[in-house]
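User: Predict the structure for this protein chain, please.
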Amino acid sequence: MSSLPQQQQQQHQQQQAELPPHSSDPEQELPRVLLALQTVYAPNTVVGPNNNSSTSSPFDRRDVADRYLTSFQRTAVAWIVCDRLLSTADVNSATPATAAATTEDSTLRTQRQFFAAQTLHAKCLSDVYQLPPTSLPSLRDSLLNHFLTHATDSVRAHLENRPANRPLVTRLSMAIASLAVQMGWSTCLTDVTNSVLTPHPELGPAVLELFRSIPEEADSNRLVLGSEEDLWAYRDMLRNSSHVVLGLCEHAVQSIGNNSSDVATTEAVLSCLQSWIRIVDMDPQLLERTVLLPWMFDLLTDFNRGGFELAVDVVVEMLRTYPSDRRGVEGLVTAIIPRVMTLGQQLDGNVNTGQLTPFQRSVQEEDEDGMRGYCRIFTEMSESYLSLILSHEEMNQASLVELVLQCAGIPDKEIAGITLHFWYRFVIGLEELEPFEYRQIKIDSFAPQLTRLLAICTHLLKYPVGVEDLSPDRLDDLEGIRLYFADTIEDCCRLLGGEVVLRATGDPLREECNRVASLPPNKQLSDWHGMEAYLYAIQAVSMYVPPDERQVIPFVMGLIPQLPGEVPLLRATACQTVGKYASWLGMQPSHLQPLLPYLAQGLSIPKCASASAVAIREICEKCNSLGDSVLQLYDGIVAARQQHSGGEDFILDLRNELEVLEGVCKAVSTKLREEPSIINHLAQPIVNSLKAISSPQSVASPRQISAELCRLTVLVQHLRLPRPPSQPGIMNRSEFILGLMREAWPMLDAVSQKYPRDFNCGEKLCRLHKHSLRECGPVHYAPLLESLVEQTVKNFGLSLSSPYLYLASIIVSEYGRNAAHSKLLYDMVASLASAVFNTLRTTDDFTAHPDVVEEFFFMAGRMINYCPSPLVQSPLLNSLLQCAALGMKLYHRDANRGTLNFLESTVSYSLKLRLSGPSLDANGQADMAALERAILAEGQPLVINLAQSLLGDLPAYRLDSGSGSIAGVLFYLNQLCPDLLMQWIQPPLTTAPEHAKSAFLVALHNRVAREEFNSSVRRFTAVCERSRKRKI
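Assistant: Here is the predicted structure, written as structure tokens:
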């Protein structure tokens, strides 16, 4: 509660005050719960004694009733009340006011019984500590009686043709299963079989439901047990009892016989079996010998039969759990392989008869469920048995790969995509084979399938007809699927080679182009999908194509300018292809001439602009001959933008313009020595725009200001002049940046004041300064340092925007090692800290500015790491530690990380000084003394916060990872002042579980190594978390 803002605390307290109090007497609590349930589930029903509508009820409002029931579920009296709710007779006798009618509304009765079962299930998971251990057997017996009653009623309901309450039976099964784990009920399987199933064989599906729940509840992350050892012992018991479950399933299957209409029993057997295979890790020899194996595969021969999908799930789970490289599964693998192959591969005797396999029938009938099920099985077996597929022993492995290949050829992209992970693993497996000669033999043996796979994936890349009408979300999904198929094509290059794959996609592209060219002119424009798919595949393999390729890529580059420009999706893929082959174009510049105008035209088409801009940047990076052409292109963009209302809503998005500008900078960088005027040619329009928008009369928007700052940043980053020292008469990079920033400085100062609180403007300005400083170099940028610090402090004071704190961190990291700048840096940090302290005075203030808290403490941490002495020897350190004590309570991951980073840096620096010993100079000794005083004065609240984070009362986002963690701060404190830490940390840990606290304190006392200490912290917090769950 202490972490909530004050307003939220007051609201929560008000809501709690509205709730009627709970009673520990079931006779008093039951009627209240019934009234609350009636309000929630039947709000229009009149409630109250004698149905008198004038009588006021504490649950007239549904939200109040809902909160009351939620809080009731955590009480100890809920055990008895829910037990009574599950008994209709007890409920009716307890509520004479609502029992005037001769029959109770069945829907309301069903809902409150489910609420009761749901509550008992939740309490069996985590609240068993509320009951004395001696009462658990009676609770178990009561739950079993309810289970028997309601399971019997469900069977009767089926016979009487009325709805059965299966969810209630399922929830009761889950409650019994959870209680079984809590009690360590090792004979639960045989006990339930003897006491429930033997006298009531008709309850077979319900008992199987219960048995399915047993391993699932033992595996639940909501289960709270006092000892992990008890849980592992229970799981071992389940594994040793697997034969009991298999026996029950076999008996149920035998009882079904040829009765294919008993779908309920079939599904119950399959669900139970899947749960035990997935969680319990049954002995594979049991599965090898069970009659359930041939029974399941018999179900799989008919995809229209009840239980088919569940049978698929079980077989997939079995394949996943028992891969071929696991010890002891040889018999099971031998039993599974021929059965799976029969589903998809025709036997020798059936080849000439025309009899189709189940998989072939599903494809012929276009049955999606059947195709998906068989595809999952074939793909999972191929992945799980990959070691056999790659084995040197001949086992007709190609037939299994052939089945997966047939699945990949299913027209439904979603179903075909199931196979893609296998192909990824298949390629990796082949690549890892040793020696090389054997690897090449296996690759050659599978080359025909891989070549067909290329054709299949390329076909699946095709956009559907009418793709232009798809919604943006559906189009995004389609693009994601296409990326996966393209990745598979790229993977094939690693085995077959880029040239082979390129020819396998380039030759069909020629054929497709000839086919489209032969169509009537009125049909050519609508039949572009195949050409686009081949281009997409060709760009996917660009990394593996040699730069001197002379067969396919020249044809492609000659084709692209001739493609119809009226199809945006085709044009976008064509532009991407040009960009991907920028290196090839750099070696073959003769093909560039018609391509640049094609790309330039694409900038004016919204759906192609991004692809065109990226392609222009990519070819500028690789082609040295484009300087003049792209410079003219960018001049045209600038002129068009200036004629368009100052750039607002210009047809070319800023992001795409910046891509082009980056490419221009890289393309002209090689010409700057011969033509230095290009620098001014690019920079002057930006400077002129800045001058115009910085004037007092300008009404430029924040968006326009941000755009000019971004353009200037691109020049600074990507205009590659030689680094200093340079030849006489030739401007170097530092001189260019320093001159540019000096000219622009008054304008930058002015625009920062126009919209001081606009976060985006501030972020772009700070990004410009960061890149200018780093590209120029701290030594050459030093003349502007004081102005930069002054602007940073002033702008932060006006805006309280975190980017200025980030910029201050960059300044500290670049100049902190230079003692000549230490006073300036300290004054900057102190001024920024003063602004932060004046603003962040309360917990609510911290909560409202988490980004400021994060960057402020990262800046302080960098000051400790790079320029510690001025800060450590000042009173500001104590204030920072006090502020950190508040920042640690903030429920914000990044803010918490920044705070802990500062604390860990501070304590570790103090420890470093302590370990230096006599070698410290006077300044170092002064630092150490100041740090010890600060930690002695401010350390206890920090340690209390750290302890509360371990207990779960405060945030613990960073337990032991990275630079800045709870474990890191405690570890360094323990090395620095172990006695003080032990004195401070023990009082807040009084509420921790005793055994966990003792183990953690022992680790502190023994001053164990960092890795071992991290482990002790993780163990301690895990136990505390389980303890908290039990108390909630």
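The two ends are 13 Å apart (CA to CA).
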